[in-house]
Amino acid sequence: MSKITAEHLQRSACVYIRQSTPDQLVHNLESQRRQYGLADRAKQLGWTTVEIIDDDLGRSGGGIARPGFERLLAAICDGRVGAVLAIEASRLARNGRDWHTLIEFCGLVGTIIVDEDGPGNDAGAAWSGRPARGAWPTRSTAACRTTCR
Fold first, then answer.
1. Please, what are the domains in the chain?
2. Which of 22, 51, 102, 120 makes the best surface tag, with the fewest CB within 10 Å?
3. Catalytic residue among 20, 31, 60, 90
4. pLDDT tens-digit profile of 70-79?
5. Is the pTM of the predicted complex or chain greater than 0.85?
């Protein structure tokens, strides 16, 4: 059973691309190729509108401003994003606060997160819906609704 619905497909898919250091940009070209390839994967899964967010190439997630991540969160909160694609979920957020915020916002607006293997595989590659009670203890739902809407 696929977690991708017609409602997800009516919105855009955002491919979030990041490599942590300038050295990785030069030496990890295979990772870049795989990450940019997720745009084609989104189209295979049914999205007609795919946005690539690669503003954070060469930026570590630890304590450094990431304008691409902020742009991703804003698009999610605006209700424009049906799915966020990343080569692996760990590439989306490099600290607990960012991860919890992302998951909470996605849950509030019905955005799914899809990794390189796609949604609905045995490893549970797509996350959607509200997090389990107590699993993401960072922001209250009311605070997220205020931020997102």
1. 6-148 (3.40.50.1390)
2. 22
3. 20
4. 999 999 999 9
5. no
